[in-house]
Automatic annotation (TrEMBL):
<keyword id="KW-0408">Iron</keyword>
<dbReference type="InterPro" id="IPR051459">
    <property type="entry name" value="Cytochrome_c-type_DH"/>
</dbReference>
<dbReference type="InterPro" id="IPR036909">
    <property type="entry name" value="Cyt_c-like_dom_sf"/>
</dbReference>
<feature type="signal peptide">
    <location>
        <begin position="1"/>
        <end position="19"/>
    </location>
</feature>
<dbReference type="GO" id="GO:0009055">
    <property type="term" value="F:electron transfer activity"/>
</dbReference>
<keyword id="KW-0479">Metal-binding</keyword>
<keyword id="KW-0349">Heme</keyword>
<keyword id="KW-0732">Signal</keyword>
<dbReference type="GO" id="GO:0046872">
    <property type="term" value="F:metal ion binding"/>
</dbReference>
<dbReference type="GO" id="GO:0020037">
    <property type="term" value="F:heme binding"/>
</dbReference>
<dbReference type="InterPro" id="IPR009056">
    <property type="entry name" value="Cyt_c-like_dom"/>
</dbReference>
<protein>
    <recommendedName>
        <fullName>Cytochrome c domain-containing protein</fullName>
    </recommendedName>
</protein>
<feature type="domain" description="Cytochrome c">
    <location>
        <begin position="24"/>
        <end position="163"/>
    </location>
</feature>
Amino acid sequence: MTLTRPFLLALLGAAVAQAGTPDAVLRRGAYLVQIGGCNDCHTPLKLGPRGPEPDLARMLSGHPEALKMPPAPVLPEGPWAVTMAATSTAFAGPWGVSYAANLTPDKETGLGAWTEAQFLQMIRTGRHLGQGRPVLPPMSVHSLRAATEADQKALFAYLKSIAPVSNRVPAATEPTVP
């Protein structure tokens, strides 16, 4: 019986150590991307055999730079105040027009030049690079704030590990005032 306790403690220690391995952190980040629905807005669609489907060759690369959007429609008065492009990568509302960002590690057009500290600061402040313009709807940075710091870091580690895609997303535009 006296060997049982040291054995269990050794197993627990090994399990805790395993949870912090780079592979485990990346798996956790991939899981968070999946359950967080990140691909729903940040991965462009392509036409598949059953209709629109995520274009995984451009996974998390944001609104396609080659897709020039016409002006957003005039928003109706009342509670219906948001429109979304058929691509699921461009959105218009009282904030103006926002485009899903390139979350790949491309150094010129994505998160490649971001540090982990900047990513965490963006989550904490709700501002681009932690100090710029506000992160715009429909991105729910508030949900990310509820995640543990370990999960926020796992998310960033995973985003830095995926294939970089060069895709310069258009800048957000201010709302049109009639």
